[in-house]
Fold this sequence. Notes:
The chain is mainly α. The protein folds into 2 domains: 14-128, no CATH class; 135-271, no CATH class. It has helices spanning 4-15, 22-39, 52-64, 69-75, 77-89, 94-105, 114-128, 146-156, 162-175, 184-190, 197-209, 216-237, 256-271, and strands at 239-241, 247-249. Strands 1-2 form a two-stranded antiparallel sheet. Helix 2 (22-39) crosses helix 5 (77-89), helix 3 (52-64) packs across helix 5 and helix 3 crosses helix 7 (114-128).
Amino acid sequence: MMTEDEIYEDLEVTFGKAPQSVEEKNMAWLLQVLDEYADEGGGIEKVPEPSLDAVAMTTIAITTYPIPFEELAEKKPAIKRTLLWLTVKSNGHYDEIDDLMHRLMHKSYKGLKLAMITKVLKIFKWLSNQKVPTKLIEVVTHSEHYDDISEGLHRLIKPNKIEDAVLYIICAIEDGLLPMDVRRSLIIKEFDLTANRSAYHRYFSKYFTNSALLDPGQEKWLKTQKEKRKITLRATINYTVGKDGRIKFYGHTLTAQNALLFLIAKFRRFIHS
Length: 273
């Protein structure tokens, strides 16, 4: 039975990369904007609300021209600022978007129709319902199962139990959920381990990087601890590992959401490569 990764890879080998539609490009760009803004430490309050003129221009542009949002934003600074505000506000503050668009409805702009405003509201309502993946999606080896892997690891890893956290990360690596060379800085930031950064590096080096230097007693203890945690990790995320090392996830089918996560992961890996 083929895994989801194998299905996508097989199709890509046979037919080449699937061309992105304008809608897919817009989805990827909006998520990228939200990611970059969060990475830069931008606060929602720092994004100025656009004028109604700018909102009207943006609404007409994105609903009339079959041009990717990124291109529209590059050519018109007012559209770029408006899309940034709409994107940032969609993350927990959709009510402000709703309020602004309803104010726009009471203004008269040539060519601006109610259907256009409704379409914009639908776009950013959709975005507001998306759980924007963290940087972890760039490194998980089965990105279509990112939600389950991320949720499971976050449930098990506690910032105040740093040795335990390191052991779970090592188990995730050995089981094939994370790559061997996963960046420590990414893991520390993802699981809020900054306060115990030094301890994380120390335990990770001891139990993973330099594990060959452990004495027989320590090696036996580590083996037992990893076996226990792998049982818990597999039960929490709901997967098994076969003798050939293949991972089988249970209770999941190939859905549009899984495919979306896979595409997001590939897109992010591409722009950061």
